[in-house]
Specification:
This protein is of the alpha+beta class. The protein is built from three helices and four strands, in the order αααββββ. The C terminus is likely disordered.
Length: 161
């Protein structure tokens, strides 16, 4: 019996090491585009968890957008949204990334689901945004968001007749 437990533990340890090695090779082959894609998905998960403190690590102190928001006002907007709504879920439909000389642009189309704090109804909306990033101290930081007016998309086909 002890031999089987020992063999199982050794096999599990080898399997875990192999999985880590495969993950390390995958990450190194993906390059900057893969690193930025993982960063965007991490920001998405932090927003879903309403983790304000962790989100600040991904927004550049030089953030500024066409609406006049800087880093501080963007965080205040997010805090207000998190205070009013709960159970946020962001489903990314499209993610296109272009990188050039330490800066990057990501075109993101997503559907955002949430609930009002006092209601159990699920609300959703589609969003289309261009997020600009800059490489600062070996990590990608958000420097600008530009929102687009989404085209009217039907989530279902209405029956006619």
């Amino acid at each position: 019996m002890k031999l089987n437990v020992k063999t199982t533990c050794i096999t599990l340890a080898i399997l875990i090491c192999a999985l880590f090695a495969v993950r390390a090779v995958t990450i190194s082959l993906e390059g900057e585009k893969g690193y930025l894609k993982r960063t965007i998905h991490k920001i998405k998960r932090l927003a879903e968890r309403e983790s304000m403190l962790a989100l600040t690590n991904y927004i550049s102190p030089n953030y500024y957008d066409e609406l006049g928001n800087d880093r501080r006002s963007l965080l205040l907007i997010a805090k207000g949204f998190f205070g009013e709504y709960k159970n946020i879920l962001i489903a990314i439909d499209t993610l296109e990334i272009e990188i050039e000389d330490g800066s990057a642009s990501a075109h993101i189309e997503a559907t955002v689901y949430w609930q009002e704090d006092v209601s159990s109804d699920i609300i959703y909306d589609t969003v289309e945004v261009e997020a600009k990033f800059k490489k600062e101290r070996n990590s990608w930081k958000l420097i600008e968001l530009r929102f687009f007016e989404p085209e009217k998309k039907l989530l279902f086909s209405p029956m006619i007749g």
